[in-house]
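Posting for a labmate who doesn't have an account.
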Amino acid sequence: MFHTRDVGRPNVVIVIPTYWTWGSNRPNGPVETIYDHPTPLDGESTLPRLLESLTSLEGPGFGVLILTAATHPELEKAAADQVTRLIAPFRAHSPGFRCKSGADFPVCRSDRLESLPYMNYPIAQATEADAAFIRQRYPGLADHVQMRGYAGVRNLQLLLSHALGAEVVVALDDDEVVASDYLQTALHFVGREHGGERVLGLAGFYLDAGGNMLLPEAPRTGNIFQDKSAIMNEGTRTLQATPGRLIPTPVAFGGNMVFHRDLFTRVGFDPGIARGEDIDYVINAHLAGYQFWLDKELVITHLPPESYGALPYAKLVQDVYRFIYEREKLRLAGADSAQFDPYPG
């Protein structure tokens, strides 16, 4: 059985998915799962840059969990090996998690944190092999526990953090950096009451390298799919103009989300969503009776690499499917999509 006494219990787990694809020796290799900008196996990863920024975080102790996914099953072991190499310098300076199989869940034990002059957070990696182990132990979860697809990866983000006993999950992406006060800001409201409601789900803004919050946009065409960036910017402006620091939100960005245990143990990501799983989670939370909030001061800097291996039309197709799927989900729930205007309503 899985016992919490066998597991280090970091109150806060920062979870970072990292996505990988074929290297330059096979740029046209088969792809089963589409990600926005996966890193080629022989390319330069942005992950170490983020891990470096985490070393300056102020506030309570935390653990870091890396989720390694690939565009094709043949790449999964090589991607895991690459991530092991990338995080090795950080493990060398931190207590780390020790993980083993043989229980109902993989057992991860966090050594006691020590006062270290440089890196001072435990760090671990989870892969599709870990997901397969859970599926083997729990066959009923087979369709939902997989390190493939955005929703699958995000659900493991919640499941493995739950197994570690986390009270709060902070979701980042590997192509970001954070300021030293980020964690303190992320934890400021979560779990507390605001306006008579507990804040259990929290989102923040993305900034680009120049500190801008809005996406580049072209003149509107009248096609809602081609005008996606403009509509998202309209939503951002509306949120910015709403009075107050903490406000209800219909949108969230997957690389800047905070989940309290009382939310992530009750609401999951929809496995039917191939992309846009972050905003869809807000819809799921709403349908389950939970408000999602935006903290205007919770920001990360997004520094994405050039897109690699995913054609724009493939992403567009996934967006079309998503919006049709979500409209039907809202219809079946008797919910009005207008409450999510201007985006994604």
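Reply:
Got it, the structure tokens are right above this. The chain has one domain: 4-340.
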